[in-house]
Each structure stands twice: as structure tokens, then as C-alpha cells.
Write a structure and sequence with these properties.
The chain is mostly beta strands. It has strands spanning about 1-15, 20-25, 40-45, 50-60, 65-75, 80-85. The strands form two sheets. It has a four-stranded antiparallel β-sheet with strand order 3-2-5-6, with no helix packed on it.
Length: about 90
């Protein structure tokens, strides 16, 4: 087991102008949430089609080796992005 003091999740968005609610989950190899799911906001400005979003995660406990997943989706949309974070045990 290890505790990450600070992790930063950064996303570069492309899409239509507007404000969006984004859900972020961090899921362990056992299928359970590692942290409580987060609701974040992103605003794509008028005249643009890009925006950046950053989430800082502190004191994140990784209790076992395996494949952890960040799952990201915009409320009201079915598409989801999944980013893998493999965690290996050093012998």
C-alpha cells in the first residue's frame, strides 16, 4: 500500500461553447471507488472550442497493485473517457 500525497488530473477539452458538469471517478482494481466521485465544472468560452480542466487529488491511498482507472464523463452524455493507471508492486 502507498499514499500519494498529491496527484493532478489534467484534461484538455474540445467541444461546443457552454458550461458542463463533469464527473470524475477513480476506480481501483477491485472495482470500488478509491476516492468519492467528483463533480467538476468546465466552461468552453464563446468563440472558442477548447478549455482546460485540472483536478488536484490529495492523500490518495492505493491499497493494492493492479490496474486503476480514471473514468470521466459529461452529465447528460453517454460517452465516457477512461484512462488507465497501472500500479505495480516492487519486489
Amino acid at each position: 500500500p502507498v499514499v500519494h500525497n498529491r496527484m493532478v488530473f489534467f484534461v484538455h477539452w474540445r467541444g461546443d461553447e457552454g458550461s458542463y458538469t463533469v464527473n470524475l471517478r477513480f476506480i481501483g482494481p477491485d472495482g470500488k471507488d478509491v476516492i468519492q466521485p467528483l463533480k467538476l465544472g468546465v466552461k468552453i468560452p464563446r468563440g472558442g472550442n477548447k478549455a482546460n480542466m485540472m483536478a488536484e487529488l490529495n492523500q490518495v491511498a492505493l491499497k493494492m497493485p493492479g490496474n486503476y482507472l480514471f473514468e470521466l464523463f459529461v452529465e447528460g452524455q453517454e460517452d465516457r473517457a477512461v484512462v488507465s493507471l497501472p500500479v505495480n508492486q516492487i519486489q
